[in-house]
What we know:
Layout: E1 32-37, E2 45-49, E3 55-59, H1 68-71, E4 72-76, E5 84-89, E6 94-99, E7 107-112, E8 128-134, H2 147-163, E9 182-184, H3 185-201, H4 206-222, E10 234-236, E11 252-253, H5 254-270, H6 276-291, E12 308-309, H7 328-336, H8 344-351, E13 362-363, E14 366-367, H9 379-382, H10 400-417, E15 434-437, E16 441-444, H11 456-460, H12 467-480, H13 482-485, E17 486-487, E18 490-491, E19 495-496, E20 501-502, H14 508-522, H15 525-531, H16 534-542
Parallel strand pairs: 2-8
Antiparallel strand pairs: 1-3, 3-6, 4-7, 5-6, 7-8, 9-10, 11-12, 13-14, 15-16, 17-18, 19-20
Helix pairs in contact: 2-3, 2-14, 3-4, 3-5, 3-14, 4-6, 5-6, 7-16
Amino acid sequence: xxxxxxxxxxxxxxxxxxxxxxxxxxxxxxxxxxxxxxxxxxxxxxxxxxxxxxxxxxxxxxxxxxxxxxxxxxxxxxxxxxxxxxxxxxxxxxxxxxxxxxxxxxxxxxxxxxxxxxxxxxxxxxxxxxxxxxxxxxxxxxxxxxxxxxxxxxxxxxxxxxxxxxxxxxxxxxxxxxxxxxxxxxxxxxxxxxxxxxxxxxxxxxxxxxxxxxxxxxxxxxxxxxxxxxxxxxxxxxxxxxxxxxxxxxxxxxxxxxxxxxxxxxxxxxxxxxxxxxxxxxxxxxxxxxxxxxxxxxxxxxxxxxxxxxxxxxxxxxxxxxxxxxxxxxxxxxxxxxxxxxxxxxxxxxxxxxxxxxxxxxxxxxxxxxxxxxxxxxxxxxxxxxxxxxxxxxxxxxxxxxxxxxxxxxxxxxxxxxxxxxxxxxxxxxxxxxxxxxxxxxxxxxxxxxxxxxxxxxxxxxxxxxxxxxxxxxxxxxxxxxxxxxxxxxxxxxxxxxxxxxxxxxxxxxxxxxxxxxxxxxxxxxxxxxxxxxxxxxxxxxxxxxxxxx
Length: 550
């Protein structure tokens, strides 16, 4: 066949030859090249952005300017549309977007859809989003007051969580501001100490405080479910029945019980009047205190204490209480019991792990005597030491004022160094501890578990250890973030400036250390009361502690 045989012509229906037809080639798609915000290229996410940024979006082809408004949407995290102007550079391959003034501490998204066209009619190959988080507004949100007045204000506002929001039946502290009838045992111990502070500061009268304490102690004595004298992590505030914390944590929680007893013994020492009401209150507190079978939690006489026991699962969680963490108070009280005490070997082996809880390494130039790498979350330094006075306190393993100051300083220094480049971390904005995080989560934040979330309780409750650094943080939280973080019960739980996320939650175990350790910083009230317990003096001495307060 010759070349002519390779070609053919189509025919019309009447058999006539027609002109050959050829398919129209598709219009080429095009791609996104880069983004710049205020002249900086950082991929698709930008933090600490000012209120009037200049955003340049560059593409691999000239674009159709007529398609921009319908294909590039600028919105806030709440879905509010942001108006913007657009101009074009580099032969229309770069769109320069200037939005109307943005709000501070807000997350925005620029969504570019495949509806964006090139000047030749091609479509953007794939959609993408540019994420912006705006910077902190440096203007004070509240009038400036003296530091002393600010400390009083924070204490008084935080006190409302335990007083105004105290459970109406039991008087105990609810787990969080959305918990209805779920009571936290440990948080209630912190709340009982807060009631003592409230009376002493004049937020309520002594008679009011006594009446609330009678309600609380009566409920614990007559209604609350216990196991060998120990309380569960959570209780129902109406019935006193267990609310399981988890599947196997549906019985005794010895650590939570120790926080409750820390508060009750402090209140016992405060309500020391000779009248019948205060005398009876002390008697009832002693009944609760003496009922705790600390020694039973050695699980058949072992030289350690166990955290949980369940009526359904017995010891199956098998969690020993070992240092260094938040549970020193558990061993102190176990040794201090006059009815069910434990000997020093249980502390030495179970808590101190025969010295293995020692650290001794240096972080940011600060030597840490005890505990995990870089100290762990700051609640390790708070919960036990709302009652135990660390000043001048030593044993075979550490000087506890040195330990707590080192822990707090390492946490502070880490946030100032800010190795993860989290927005806002600074000498004024620091503090990593357990708290709520975005999307309904919870994290025990620390330098080795840093998810970008700051919790005000971390820095504020460290006031006895890092007064200058903690006071700077408290001022920052109140004056600079107060429009986002200050609520009816004081500071909300936490925030993440990378995503401009602010918790709306209050947690008893975070609120309590704020009011309680501010008071210890100001007056030493709770330390003085708890350390005045004769049983505590005897128990701590039996473990080898020495202190001017013993």
